[in-house]
Every structure is written in structure tokens, then in C-alpha cells.
Amino acid sequence: MALCSKKRPPEEERRARANDREYNEKFQYAGNCIKTSKYNILTFLPVNLFEQFQEVANTYFLFLLILQLIPQISSLSWFTTIVPLVLVLTITAVKDATDDYFRHKSDNQVNNRQSQVLINGILQQEQWMNVRVGDIIKLENNQFVAADLLLLSSSEPHGLCYIETAELDGETNMKVRQAVPVTSELGDISKLAKFDGEVICEPPNNKLDKFSGTLYWKDSKLPLSNQHMLLRGCVLRNTEWCFGLVIFAGPDTKLMQNSGRTKFKRTSIDRLMNTLVLWIFGFLVCMGVILAIGNAIWEHEVGMRFQVYLPWDEAVDSAFFSGFLSFWSYIIILNTVVPISLYVRYVLSWGLCREPGCFLGKLFSPKVKSWRRNVGSSSFCAVNIL
């Protein structure tokens, strides 16, 4: 899967020549392999822990655990904190690992789909991940488009074809695309094998409804627009076959440009929990400061008289330092103002279901920057077991 993550220099323009892999490879264009997963075996533990400790509650309980490991200030067993914390981290990690496993599985399924690619004048079955910029692909009715293609010819008159773009914009009605007139007659494989036109166009971007470029072939200079393009994720409909030239592949396709990186899921409940924990921790610090000041004053005014009977520890040499240690001791003693048991219950009930539509079912289909909502008379109910 090295092709999925190979870094390339930024582009100012895209140049793609048909049937010439050697020419196109010098530009180091991305292959057609995609990767939507977040982790691998080596990065899962450190990356997942880093993401989990962005939750304020997890960081708070880790901080509390560290304090409890210091014998000079701890009056409670560290065992009471580490067990719930490990339980929360483990449950969340298992859920994230499961989600990412299915992403890997989906990526593998998509990357291994078969497509007919014209190589050395012969149509060959190739996996999607092996498709390259400049390849000519044959699509048949009801097939998904493997990459962003320039339509060359089709079985319909005048190079027309019909596509469904539901995966891109949620629209289920058919859209019409038309080949450039000079290539619309290239329906024969022998003619396509001799096609050596070159496309110069805009660099990869996420604008689904815009494309600008120029096709150079046989002393002709032909302008290209979005009406000549078949984008990855579309489905060929009501058209027996068509041929297309790969312009953008893999992560450079408009579908993947819109998808963005897979992020750590954080719901409004998570954000509310973070805010509440910060406010409660601030209250806890204020209480600890007040009690520590009281301890320092008492040690200075009264406690000094009992040094013969109740001497300070060897590390304590002043009332101020005694108050400083007492501050951390009070933080530990009063830590229950942030109830870890309630947080564990929250993770068990909500943490296993972070999707917005978890309780409502799959009401919406995930689209690229497009959520279509049907407003009707139906009513929905979600039950919170917390």
C-alpha cells in the first residue's frame, strides 16, 4: 500500500498523455489506491492514546493517578483510579480499532475491484489500485467509475452517456455527459490504442461542478469542461459501454479531495463533558488553594507548637511547603467532585455509539459535503439510558 501514502510535490497544472505510462510517471502522479483508515499495527497504540487524551476527563484522571503515585501527598490508593481509567481507554480503543478494521476492509475491497484497461492495444482486467493516469478504461453499464475520466467515446450517438452521481451530491436523477467531437468516433480498440492526445488541465481540487482543461491532438486544441468528465463514484447508466482517459486517480480524484482525513469523532456530548470537567477542575483547584492557605496559616501559627510531639516530615522545612504539599493532597481527597464512576457509565452508554444517527438509525446516507434531509410527518424518539 505504499502507493497510497507517497508524498508528491504540489502541482500547478496536470499533464496526462494517453497510452504513455512512461511519460506520465515522470510527474509522480498518485496511483489509484485509496486509504481512508487511520491506523496500522505500529501506529494504533500511540495515535489512539494521543487522541483519547484530548478528552479532558481522561487527562484529568491520568493527572490524578500520577499524584496518587507520590507517597508524600497521596492518602488514597492509586488502584481506585487506574482501573476505571484503563477500562475507559480499553473500551474506546476496542471500538476505534473495530471501526478502523472495517475501513481497512472497505479500502481493500474498493482497491481490488476489477476494471478493463487498455494496455499495449489489448483490454486487460486490472485492479483499481493498478490504474494509472493516462490509462484508457472501458466502462460498461451499471459499473462504478474507477477514477476521474475524460469521456472519449460511448455506445450512444454523438458520444453521449448517462451517469448517476448519488455518491457525489446525493442526486439520483440521470446526468448527461458528452465526449469531445474529435474523439467520439474512437469506439474501436485499434483506434483507441493509437490515440496519443495530451490533456493539460487544472491541478487536483474538490470542486465537483467545475473542470477546465485543454485536449491537444492532431494539431487540434479543444477546450474541456465538466460536461466531458466522468468522476470517480459515479455509476454508468443506460449506456452499454464507454471509454475514458484517466486524468485524476486515487487521492487526487474529486471524491477523495472532498472526503478529507478521517478524524477522531467528537460529539456535542463530548464537548459538553470537556467543558464541565474544566469548570469542575477549576472549582477543585480553588478549594485546594483555600484549604492549602488555611493549612499553611495553621502550621505557622499553631502547628509550630507541636513540633516536639508531631514533627514535620524530613522533606518539609516550612509552613509554606507544608501548605504546598497539602494543596496536592486536597486535590486527591476531593477528586470525587469529578465522579469517575459516572464518566465510566457515560463511556459505556454513549462512547460505544458516537455516530450522530446511532439512536435514530441510518436516516441519512453519507455523501461528500452533501446531506439531504427529507422533512415529513414522521416522528423519531431517542432513549438515553444514562
UniProtKB/TrEMBL annotation:
GO terms for biological process: Golgi organization; phospholipid translocation. GO terms for molecular function: ATPase-coupled intramembrane lipid transporter activity. The chain crosses the membrane at residues 76-94, 276-298, 318-344. The keyword Transmembrane applies. The keyword Transmembrane helix applies. Keywords: Membrane, Transmembrane, Transmembrane helix. It is a multi-pass membrane protein. It is found in: Membrane. It holds the Pfam family PhoLip_ATPase_N. Coiled coil: none annotated. GO terms for cellular component: plasma membrane; trans-Golgi network. Residues 17-82 form the P-type ATPase N-terminal domain. This is P-type ATPase N-terminal domain-containing protein. It comes from Oryctolagus cuniculus.
